[in-house]
Records
---
Amino acid sequence: MDILISASILNSDLANLGNEIFRAEKAGADMIHLDVMDGVFTDSITFGDYVVGKLRNCTSLPLDTHLMVNDPTKLIPLFVNAGSDIITIHEESKCDVAECLKLIRGFGKRTGLSINPETEAERVFPYLELCDVVLIMSVKPGAGGQKFKQESLLKINAVRREADRLGLKLDIEVDGGINQTTAPLVFSAGANVAVAGTYLFKADDMRAAMDSIRNVV
Ligand code: DX5
Ligand code: ZN
């Protein structure tokens, strides 16, 4: 499977977001990762569909929208209209997970299901056929720049084994604390998509940082 990098703008210069996305695109990002937080599921609030809709005009890269919200049900159509390409919801959200995934697919968008560090990998198994992406959180959701949790490696491996057993071509994406050192660990555990924020946006040379993640395989 190809290795893909989804550049998370959370710790970028948010006052110059359009330019930061342009920088990530030029440096070779495959997707732009947008962390939507509602202040309930997470402590902080970031941005919503209105801002995502404006960012749609800044890039032709897929918008990888990570909904860290308490109930995504009513928000899904808003992010579809805003131009999101992947819409990822959380298993821990207060929603009917299967219904939300079907709703996203019904709009012709790619589906993602995420689990927090304390949630067992097996919790996504019942939904794998409805998922294009499983997003394993390797930090507590809510902030960029945290340290990668090694426990996520076993979970990546468990999800990859189950997807293979079912014959599913699933993207496994890992989010939080990805850098030159942790990227090889997640790829060899079975992930094929790395979300990287701080490591890319705070690098002196973003392209070199991007390559250092991609070329470890
Ligand atoms: C955390 C977010 C991540 C975060 C990753 O709640 O979901 O996308 O921005 O950022 P880094 O790469 O800084 O850990
Ligand atoms: Zn994220």
Note: Residues 63 and 84 are 5 Å apart (CA to CA).
---
Amino acid sequence: MDIRDTVDLSWDEFDELRDPRPAENDFDRVVERAMSRRGFLGAVLAFGSGAAVFGSGLMSSTTAARAQAGSFKFAPIGIATDHEIHVPEGYRWKPLVKWGQALFSEAEGAYSAETGVPVEMSDKVFGENTDGMETFEADGHVLLAINSEYVNPKINLPADSEGMPKNAGEVAMLKNMQGVTVLEIAPQGESWEVVIDSPYNRRITHETQMVMDGPAAGSDLVRTNADPEGMNPKGTMNNCGSGKTLWGTYLTCEENFNGYFGTTGEMPQNEGIKRYGIGAEGRYAYEKFDARYDLSKEPNEPHRHGFVTEIDPADPDSTPVKHTALGRFKHENAEMVQAADGRIVVYMGDDERGEFMYRYVSNGTWAEGQPTDGLLSDGTLYVAKFNDDQTGEWLALTPETTGMALEEILVFSRMAGSKVGATTMDRPEWIAANPLKPEAYCALTNNKNRGLKPNAGGDETPVGGPNPREANNYGQIVRWQPAGGDHGADTFAWDLFVMAGNPEAGEGAYKGSENVTAGNMFNSPDGMAFSSDGMLWIQTDGDDSNEGEFAGMGNNQMLVGNPETGEIARFLTAPNGAEVTGLTWSPDGKTAFVGIQHPGGAWPDGAGKPRSAVIQVWREDGDVIG
Ligand code: FEO
Ligand code: CA
Ligand code: CA
């Protein structure tokens, strides 16, 4: 494969092309699974109201009418296929910050619609491909911490590069356009704007100096030539979803870190190479220009990425901390809640076909005003096991349960999960916890391999449980309620909040659940967050062709779900080509900040290059949004 052919692929497509899974060839087993799937669909029962119900074709008219008149403060909108943003009547939007926009006055005017940003200004502007983000307040200032997940080299590099860097300067440009941005915003009229030169403004990139903590820090697995102590890694990469600690710091989640490494010589031989999809050619050819990314020179460097990293936005001089105790995998986001006894609980998904859902529980407890030392470095990592009877349990990953040393469990968490028999999932993306009751939701975005191919560790991916659809192209949202209403409990009950589908064109499970209608169809749920009123906001990253089995779904979108009634209504549609990812609110709740990643066309400027951007959405009547 010529790496140059991959620059237009999504990360997921890139991984699949580079490391295809063996096809399942046991035809009888596939058929058997399809049969058990039908049995499961007939048996789904809700444990609460508002659950997905798999009914006959007579589902769309009544539920659609309920969504129109239901519990939402807005009139749901239709699909779109254009290159614009659409929001409901009575709402307005405009960009807050776009790729290449100056954070400091020295970079003002640096962005050009024809050539982008010069390399010397690339760490003084907003990065590309916005993703997870959170809002903070510090001494009366309002701050946003925002992930820039990856770069599109074709629009960042000179045209003659053909999408691959030719020299160290171009590598530096790509590195600088990714990572995390902290920026201050201030009210301006009815909306917000970036405060140029705020002392809080900061870029954190692939080169920023960090520290590691937790049981794997300093272990042989994470030592390199450049950092023989294994305590001081550089950089955070492929920053996907986010989280906010209860004590007001930012959690950035390192997802497809595997694609940044390659080799100019021999490939290292260790179990993690295959399971984590690390290949001989890095997506951006960093290994040709920087030994840190060259596996023949630094075989342990990939072991220092794929973590949840904590950043204090209120202190621009703070050193980010990589928390090994929360495990190493393709972290989507990190949703923090608290157990009844005060321990810290973090829910996390590993976004890969057939990988697992995780929970971390601290040993120590916390209350407002108390020290936070050790809360994210001293605890236990668990994986989820879902049973077909709608119960489930968290399985502890310990030396006793896995036969692995603790540092191996944390660096090779996927292998530890396999050892205890965790449930292989349909690509766990964001997890969101309901602020009004003890329950949490995980977007299982899609999994074309479900029931057909094992995961990279050879674990089977049978149809069943919360992954009930073979060759699942639409996705679903699972939710669970911990036993006794305590997120610290080791057992839970689960159901499906929604199975995306096409009630008009789909057959059987492909119709979707009863709360999917002709008026709210979507595929591939991904980003999720709860507003303070207990509504679940759902963002999509799926097929926006509006053709074939995706006809009637239009561009990627943001919907709102009511956990109590199960109703789902479309709130926003993105420009064609974009996914919607990242959502946070202003402190007064009157503005929603929404990420628009990899737009097509020339959005939002109308000419020149497409620019990923965070937009702001507010109500014309000035009320809180939602
Ligand atoms: Fe970066 Fe799984 O989304
Ligand atoms: Ca995502
Ligand atoms: Ca996705």
Note: The chain has nine helices and 27 strands.
---
Amino acid sequence: MSVGTGQLLEFDHSYARELPGLSVPWTAAPVPAPALLALNEALAAELGLDAEALRAPAGVALLVGSGLPDGAQPVAQAYAGHQFGAYVPRLGDGRALLLGELVDRGGRRRDLHLKGSGRTPFARGGDGKAAVGPMLREYVTGEAMHALGIPTTRALAVVATGEQVVRESLLPGAVLARVAASHLRVGTFQYAAAASEPALVRDLADHAIARHFPDVAGAERPYLEFYRRVVDAQASLVARWMLVGFVHGVMNTDNTTISGETIDYGPCAFMDAFDPATVFSSIDHRGRYAYANQPGIAQWNLARLGETLVPLIDEDTDTAVEAATEVVTAFVERYEAYWASGMAAKLGLETPDTPLVQDLLALLHAQRVDFTRSFRALSAHLRGGDVRPLFAEPDAFDAWVARWEALLPPDRGAVAAAMDRVNPVYVPRNHLVEEAVAAATAGDTAPFHRLVDAVASPFDERPGLERYAEPAPAGCGPHVTYCGT
Ligand code: AMP
Ligand code: MG
């Protein structure tokens, strides 16, 4: 079952083996001059991989998909997806490969996957490549999310290829090696459900259950229970995004995981000034994936998943649809519960108080206050700091603070400390990511590594890192847009 040579690692291939209809065996394009730009040593250790070996030529070769262990069977995965609401029946890994699965030190099965590894049969018009900038953006954003305690795929490494890729200009190319609980997406189920082989969606659901929710296998209605668990995982995930001001940017069904991990960081960003309408993607003209729309979009994507499961849930279609509808409708209350308890923690409250939170958010919006800084300012206020300068009209803030303080437990020092454990100082702000990525594209990765260090310990304020806690300088504009591929 397992393959390998006792070299750097051993892969398993349960996805390719159990679901042959959902992938195509494929190999990575040769890389002329691989050069390691970033290696995630902590993640390597988690996977039981030796960082020094990964830095050596054989390790770097592995990280771009050449020099794989004997018997490795990399595949391009098939999936469909709704992109900005429009159904595309065949998307798939156009420029990516699943190298195989590893069992990490904690016994968890993790995918090792490449992005930018060359054209595959799913490539359509694309060149199969990736540029250094967007791959480093995925690396730093994923590390920030992980450090914030938000489920996410993570970069293991970014390797420059030595090639130029053609975008609006010529850019240095790169391959990202990333690790995920799996790459099962809502779009994978859409693809399986549309296939001519009716057993495929059942096989896929069984695979997903075994991998992510093994305890539901024994439930009375396992597929319905599976659906409920995915809905719950996504409700929790999107609530966590909202609590840190994160905008994913491309919440297509192919970018919505079954595991509940954040995936495919493209034109995403953390907002500075609070504005529910914040959009970062330059191609999202209508604001479909704006900050405030994210919970509704997640629920819409989960409804698409539910449609694929209907035949598995019950022989009687009406019964199945009714049961699935009940589950997806409950997304709203699940999401709201996660969000309300998260907001209570951010404000140091023992019980959620939605009107209080809504009034704070309205104040932040009206006065265009920085979202991340405002919560740290509140804990600073409890310690006697003067945070009124953050607000253009501090009187309204004073009135809100009086209401808030009346609800707090008496030990203000303890409240402030608890708030600081959930409210980050450092998030990968857009202008910092752009700066780091631009420097790396020009050959200097030092700013990128400094930014990764800052966001990897987001809650501990450290001297010398002041600029990483600041919003974009005036003139930078709140809605910097870019395309993330
Ligand atoms: P993404 O926007 O990265 O989630 O990708 C959406 C779809 O476009 C997936 O099927 C990708 O594999 C494909 N794709 C994106 N960029 C490229 C590229 N440069 N070459 C080939 N396929 C691509
Ligand atoms: Mg994608």
Note: DSSP finds 17 helices and 13 strands in the chain.
---
Amino acid sequence: MFDLHDLYQDLILDHNRSPRNRRRLDAADREAEGYNPLCGDRVTIYLSIRDDVVEDVAFEGSGCAISTAAASLMTESVKGKTVDEAHRLFERFHEMVTEGAPPADDGPGLGKLEAFSGVRRFPARVKCATLAWHTLVAALGNRAELVTTE
Ligand code: ZN
């Protein structure tokens, strides 16, 4: 049986307690803000892009455990990736939390991000898990307007 505890896997709890890359990035050359009105999650993503590679990425914000852990794990996952790889990772993550895990041999592996696979069973939490990613995509595209999940 699946219960709510499965949603809060140890990795998610750990990243909520000690978020990685949660700071303002003064050297950021792109940033975007996101808001999930359904839950009240807010996030700002900072990016430093050099030669089409995510040289550094950080976030600030406040929200539920899922949104904080998702932002933390997102920054770990895309740091050092090319802009194109970051987009593909977003697509696969989105696919996993909305439709289920995609086949392993189809594109980049999700690694630790698979901790969020249980989110699919909680539709209201999908927006918490994807907020940082939608905001990342806006920052990558240099779109300044506020990203909302509604
Ligand atoms: Zn939330």
Note: The beta strands are 30-36, 41-50, 53-62, 147-148.
